[in-house]
Amino acid sequence: MRLFSTPQLNPASETGWRRRWFDIIYRRDTRPSRNFDLLLVYAIVASVLVVMLDSVQHIHAAWASWFYVAEWGFTLLFSAEYALRLLVVRRPLRYALSIWGIIDLLAILPTYLSLLLPGAQTLLVVRALRILRVFRILKLTRYIEESGILMQALWRSRRKILLFLSLVITIAIVAGSLMYVIEGPSHGFSNIPASMYWAVVTMATVGFGDIVPQTTLGRFVTSALILIGYSIIAVPTGIYTAELANGMRQAEAAAGRRRRDDRGCVVCGYEGHEPAARYCNRCGHELPEPLEP
Amino acid sequence: MRLFSTPQLNPASETGWRRRWFDIIYRRDTRPSRNFDLLLVYAIVASVLVVMLDSVQHIHAAWASWFYVAEWGFTLLFSAEYALRLLVVRRPLRYALSIWGIIDLLAILPTYLSLLLPGAQTLLVVRALRILRVFRILKLTRYIEESGILMQALWRSRRKILLFLSLVITIAIVAGSLMYVIEGPSHGFSNIPASMYWAVVTMATVGFGDIVPQTTLGRFVTSALILIGYSIIAVPTGIYTAELANGMRQAEAAAGRRRRDDRGCVVCGYEGHEPAARYCNRCGHELPEPLEP
Amino acid sequence: MRLFSTPQLNPASETGWRRRWFDIIYRRDTRPSRNFDLLLVYAIVASVLVVMLDSVQHIHAAWASWFYVAEWGFTLLFSAEYALRLLVVRRPLRYALSIWGIIDLLAILPTYLSLLLPGAQTLLVVRALRILRVFRILKLTRYIEESGILMQALWRSRRKILLFLSLVITIAIVAGSLMYVIEGPSHGFSNIPASMYWAVVTMATVGFGDIVPQTTLGRFVTSALILIGYSIIAVPTGIYTAELANGMRQAEAAAGRRRRDDRGCVVCGYEGHEPAARYCNRCGHELPEPLEP
Amino acid sequence: MRLFSTPQLNPASETGWRRRWFDIIYRRDTRPSRNFDLLLVYAIVASVLVVMLDSVQHIHAAWASWFYVAEWGFTLLFSAEYALRLLVVRRPLRYALSIWGIIDLLAILPTYLSLLLPGAQTLLVVRALRILRVFRILKLTRYIEESGILMQALWRSRRKILLFLSLVITIAIVAGSLMYVIEGPSHGFSNIPASMYWAVVTMATVGFGDIVPQTTLGRFVTSALILIGYSIIAVPTGIYTAELANGMRQAEAAAGRRRRDDRGCVVCGYEGHEPAARYCNRCGHELPEPLEP
């Protein structure tokens, strides 16, 4: 997966400032690189908070100009970061077209676009674009070490879950069409897409209650739909649990094999003995004392 | 299960156009058969989209005549496909009575019926029948190879899930009756079937909010019902997860056995040795070196 | 568990009609006993349906007298069955005090009580008692063979699930009290019990929407409560799945041991060989050919 | 974890009343200590009930003075208990700063504070503080022996569940911002925090229905959000189930190892043989016959 691949240094300069910044941005084990990561995380969270608070009317009324300044401050900071990344990596285009590269770009673009598209009539569009800055928070996940196992289990079960979703959508089409015929537009089921929306909301046990069956037959079909949804909600859970348990078992087995490998036979070199074995499995020579775990 | 059985060629003509079409329709590995499958999937999705969009009032107002033409186009296409399937399979009746045969028929029947049953007063009935065309999308699942494991796990756990559903229905009857007595018709619990509908909606954690307890005792019973539902929602998940993990373990064990088979004994031909074995299990002759995995 | 214990014949008469009826009621393998079971199941379902339909106003208006007759018919039938069971079992009192004995009694009592407590003012109470007749359907589960594994897994995990429920209730008390203070009676959180009802409805992801937070702080606490509930909904599922997988593995292992045991060594009598073994594990004597599975 | 650590006796007096009370409060196996625990549990439940009932208006009107007396009675009882605990443990400060110490203090503080902060205008604040007394019920969990396995599995999976929660919050920010732009304040999505509240309520399948999408695009995004939530609801369940199954397998393996230990070699004393072993693993001496399990 390109998602987790490590970028390589721009070969133009193995030494100099590029080298230094590459180490700061992409390595984890030095003090400056850790400070850089932390600074970035704080900046991302703060910029998302600004967008969120700016949307609350009475806060916007009082702080609008401050938020405007902060907005441009964050945009310039992230622009500098984006430029730096482009300069130091070996293949800038590859970074620019990767998932993170696109998110990094989308996080700065809306503020610049708001300069090009001024005027009251385009405010809504600009607001829509600015919202995309929220995607910055997605960067956060990059900094969390532990997400690997969970993500890999999700990734391995992606085809099964997609299949499951297509089953859910098929049921939603059939149930939505049925309810559209049974209840009709007068009870809120105004067309098949709206009925499908209702079917998804119902089957996934959300149940907003904005559209609700009112005929006896409609309620009967709804109960059946709910029980079907209740029965197959097990499917993604089952898939994911099985995959995760599998992954954890493999990780454990690998750790177990590594533990065995520690004591190779000094005569024939055979490794992989039982932790309690005292003689080599293969040639009979005495093994070294096992280490305390 | 007849659901996944492979149909056999009509013996009347082992060669000629029947043979050719049978290969196109039922085999997967040639280019024309793959094109046929893809064309069918596109046609099914497009026809379902037409039915869905036709139900939206303002789209219907503008495009009604186009949809009418598309409707008949799809119907004729699917009719030709249905006829072809009947002609080339060995036992046409068996296909016609199979699940897919019935769905294929239901997918074309409503459009023809709309000719025989004209008039404004029957419009609703015809619409109901036309909805059945949506079942076409169910055909899609036939074309997805990977659904096997998921379906088999569901199939193996069908009895346990049915048992669980009957338990849910029993609780719904008891809880619905109780709430009908406690809350009464004035609070929306107008009769036992309606109360049962409410109990199913509540226990499955959908919670529309169209019927809601208003007395203290009613709220207490509701809380108890919710906690019961919350506790037993684990049951179908547990059943399905256990079955799926079982199936995956068996598949893995089978794969492991196949891997063992790679090293047969050169003397007695016995296969299925332990990966670490150095001598034949059966005759004692030395085995070839195991390959690196 | 007394729930699944088999009753013993009344010793007073090893032969005669008691013996015959005991076999019909409590055994499963003869034709008359199977017919008796089936008749009873049909009668239970039919009597429940009568109670349910009788609660629907417009059906009651048209069919009240028929339902009255059916009601008494079922009551007399079930009374006869109850008397029979009391007569043929060895210890009638034990049956009468068992779970099924009490349910059997509750299923016939309300109709008789409606004779003793006539008058318009007691109608509601009688209706409440009549509802208990619905418990008849609980008898159904007795007739389903397969429920064993599921019930045993539930039974083994009962303490863990009770503990989990007490955790849920504790969180409901704390969250309910908090919301009562934050939102107050004017927003529907009229007292702590009502707030607890809301907390249970919310945490279990039912979400009726009859009581809803309206302040920003209230919505924040609600989001936190939902995320907590979302995280611990895993607990009962995990408990039950682990117990069920455990039970299935044990059943499989037991079956595997039985399969191995089939071939004992003719010399030393040792059992439990690998299915593929050709010589005795213990004394080296040749084993008999393994049977085809 | 300090949560489950056992406190040590105050060394100042190994004998005398401190010793006696330490045994009563912290040990489990004597009759007085069991009575003490039971009395405390009853007192906690009763005090919580009083707070709850006092919040119901018509009950408060009739019983206010009785509740006032009970309130002070419980407060003095718990104050005495708190003082006792401080006196008998070896390091009182450590207890006072532990989770349970803080809860014990919070459970008595509000009643005293209501003396210092009298007056109608502060009633609401005091009520808020009094609510904290409900935390007493959290003490209950301390007295339940069996919670260990469940809590440890939760504890082991805490990092994975936190990671999952941060993913849920990220999705809530993105989806909430999107819906704020699509639906806007006129449809109830008045600002991004409110939209995020809606996104959490929807994704966790609670679905109050107080805020609901009304445009077609909004409903489409909602359906997508629901399906995403429906797919990843598996994650915490999978994590917890895998951890719990892991814990149970380890407990079983430990029990199995203990079972093996039963047959030690009479010559070299080595324990831990395979159940089927006939000779000592270490010195070759014949082992005693294995006992029937």
Automatic annotation (TrEMBL), chains A, B, C, D:
It is found in: Membrane. Coiled coil: none annotated. The chain crosses the membrane at residues 36-53, 59-80, 161-182, 194-213, 220-240. Residues 34-249 form the Ion transport domain. Its main location: membrane. Keywords: Ion channel, Ion transport, Membrane, Potassium, Potassium channel, Potassium transport, Transmembrane, Transmembrane helix, Transport, Voltage-gated channel. InterPro entries: Ion_trans_dom, VG_K_chnl, Volt_channel_dom_sf. It comes from the Bacteria. It is a multi-pass membrane protein. This is Ion transporter. It comes from Stenotrophomonas nitritireducens.
